[in-house]
Amino acid sequence: MYTLSEENYLKAIYRLSQDEGKITPTAIAESLGNNPASVVDMIRKLSEKQLIEYDKKKGVELTQQGQKDAVLIVRRHRLWEVFLLEKLGYHWDEIHDIAEELEHINNDTLADRLDKFLGFPEYDPHGDPIPKANGKMAKPYSVTLAAMKTGSTCRVAAVRDTSSAFLQYLLKLNIGIGTQIQLVEKITFDNSLVISINGKDHTTVSQKFGENILVE
Amino acid sequence: MYTLSEENYLKAIYRLSQDEGKITPTAIAESLGNNPASVVDMIRKLSEKQLIEYDKKKGVELTQQGQKDAVLIVRRHRLWEVFLLEKLGYHWDEIHDIAEELEHINNDTLADRLDKFLGFPEYDPHGDPIPKANGKMAKPYSVTLAAMKTGSTCRVAAVRDTSSAFLQYLLKLNIGIGTQIQLVEKITFDNSLVISINGKDHTTVSQKFGENILVE
DNA sequence: AAATAAAATTAGTCTTGACTAATTATATTT
DNA sequence: AAATATAATTAGTCAAGACTAATTTTATTT
Fold first, then answer.
1. pLDDT at residue A201 tops 90
2. Are the Cβ atoms of B117 and A87 closer than 8 angstroms?
3. Are B90 and A101 within 8 A, CB to CB?
4. What is the pLDDT of residue A97?
5. What is the pLDDT of residue B200?
6. Chain A partners of B89 at a C-beta cutoff of 8 Å?
7. N or C end of chain A: which has fewer CB within 10 A?
8. Residues of chain A contacting residue B117, judged by C-beta atoms under 8 Å apart
9. Could you say which of B87, B107, B113 has the minimum Cβ distance to residue A89?
10. What integer is the mean pLDDT of A60-70?
11. Is residue A118 less than 8 Å (CB to CB) from chain B?
12. Separation in Å, CA B112 to CA B19, B72, B79
């Protein structure tokens, strides 16, 4: 249906569309690690295929069709992540890259069968909601640990960064989806966070860290 | 590691190496549906990478390394076929094409984990032996139904052709791996075979049919 | 052995999707 | 508003891997 590159662009544009603000060629280039000139070429191609619309004022936007197809790629990615973790016993820092390849295999009923086999999971191992076959999905978590009030306690619902560097760090800190965290103190100097993990000893983490943990 | 094309060439050459006789560029071209000129290019490339050796007299041969890598692609293909059939509930005429895509995903321990998850199967759903991680595998079945003696009874062990046209025909005839077949009569005119399936009514099938069923 | 057919190879082209370098637009400072 | 910085775009190039058409090699007939 689509080439590997087209799918990767669609996915990148979809991901960027989750943040606020307009989507520029440069932003897409950074997100994919490509040259902006290459992005301009692909913008032309995807526009011709009616998957996106590009307006200098509004930036890049997915069309209905583009949105639909991008969501299905995300669906496949997240389903495979569940499979890799639950069935093949991978750790959550190893699954992203493999799912990145598996997501491009699109053979009719494959995603739906996999979905059924996995018991129709709502969330993937990083806490991201898994789109249903019709494109619907639960609202993604959006409140960061860094935005919590001092003294409050919350549950880790998802991680924003899925790099293995971050996930391995979390593993070392004994933090996973479901972990209880209390925000003990915010250091005003650099917005570092002093937290208590599952009621245990206090640990200090950076602001960047706090912004990559989504809680509820 | 290798490009998609390189892997497909390796696999095609491996498959051809199972038959007797030398492997010519034309044979590879036919097997892949490519132009012989393209094959010549790739032969050069794979030779430079020391995956094959090409000698006009001997034809194309896999080097040790090439053989090893080709077998691992076959391993992944056959493991995924088991997965698709047993876990996702596909029928055996649907799995080949999907496995053809999945086989190219090669992420370290993926095949081994899948192997374990599936319970270390010996044969894939078409009766082909699944190579182990070290490249070893059971000897493929090689006796065709067409080569049996009239009157003898055998068990379907594997199918040679994995096209959905053939497999759907088998489905209609109620023939699968394990089915008992008695060779009732060989029609001398065109080598058609009269067979009895699981002790039931007689059916007539072509010579080509009989050559694509492997028995034991 | 010569003629013909088939196979292999070379040369040149095309498409995809990346790149660099140069140029033009748009924002941001001063 | 002019100067400058940043972003977007164009033009041209490159590699992979396919193709066609033309040529050379090798096999097969007669």
1. no
2. yes
3. no
4. 95
5. 87
6. 113, 117
7. N
8. 87-89
9. B113
10. 98
11. no
12. 28, 11, 9
Pairing of strands B202-205, B52-55: unpaired
| Cβ within 7 Å of nucleic strand D, residues | A 24-27, 36-37, 40-41, 43, 54, 56; B 3-6, 8-9, 33-35, 37-38, 41-42, 45, 56-57
Question: How far is the C-alpha of A104 from the C-alpha of A4, rounded, in Å?
Answer: 7
For B97, the closest of A88, A89, A107 (CB atoms) is A107
pLDDT confidence tier of residue A74, bands split at 50, 70 and 90? very high
Is the CA virtual torsion A119, A124, A129, A131 positive or negative?
Answer: negative
The pair of three-digit structure tokens given for residue B34, joined into one six-digit string: 């490519």
Predicted confidence at residue A20, as pLDDT, reads 86
Determine the CATH number of domain B4-62. 1.10.10.10
pLDDT value for A200: 87
Domain ranges of chain A: 4-62, 145-215
What is this model's ipTM?
0.92
* HEC profile of chain B: CCCHHHHHHHHHHHHHHHCCCCECHHHHHHHHCCCHHHHHHHHHHHHHCCCEEEECCCEEEECHHHHHHHHHHHHHHHHHHHHHHHHCCCCCCCHHHHHHHHCCCCCCCHHHHHHHHCCCCCECCCCCECCCCCCCCCCCCCCEHHHCCCCCEEEEEEECCCCHHHHHHHHHCCCCCCCEEEEEEECCCCCCEEEEECCCCEEEECHHHHHCEEEC
Structure confidence by residue, pLDDT tens digits, B141-151: 999 999 999 99
Q: What confidence score (pLDDT) does residue A44 get?
A: 97
Pick the CATH number of B145-215 from 2.30.30.90, 3.90.1170.30, 2.60.40.10, 3.40.50.970: 2.30.30.90
pLDDT tens digits along B28-61: 999 999 999 999 999 999 999 999 999 999 999 9
Residue B179, amino acid = T
Tokens in use for A113?
């069968």
Span B125-137, pLDDT tens digits: 999 999 999 999 9
- Give the gap in angstroms from C-alpha A91 to the nearest C-alpha of chain B: 12
**Is residue B179 within 8 Å of B155, Cβ to Cβ?**
yes
CA–CA dist B196, B182 (Å, integer) = 5
